[in-house]
From TrEMBL:
Source lineage: Bacteria, Bacillati, Bacillota, Bacilli, Bacillales
Taxonomic superkingdom: Bacteria
Name under which the protein is recorded: Uncharacterized protein
Length: 80
């Protein structure tokens, strides 16, 4: 599953790495001006709510210029 953040101001779909205080394309830096997009499948139940809540916290941190470390559980940990 991939999570994208669509800017409501310029309609650009940003990966979390594109966000560093603002949208990767314009000067939008307001949490309310982004829409969270899940690229595959549907979120259901409590796990879906937790996923959206976590995505919102990640977006909030990125807009506050905090460094974010995301670890892919499928990656080789020796390369981290």
């Amino acid at each position: 599953m991939e999570i994208l953040f669509k800017c409501k101001k310029c309609s650009k779909k940003n990966n979390i790495s594109n966000l560093n205080g603002t949208c990767g394309n314009c000067d939008n830096n307001r949490l309310e001006n982004f829409k969270i997009i899940i690229t595959r499948g549907k979120l259901r139940g409590m796990s879906g709510m937790q996923t959206l809540s976590t995505a919102k916290e990640i977006l909030k941190s990125a807009l506050n210029k905090e460094k974010i470390l995301l670890i892919d559980p499928k990656s080789n940990f020796n390369k981290i």
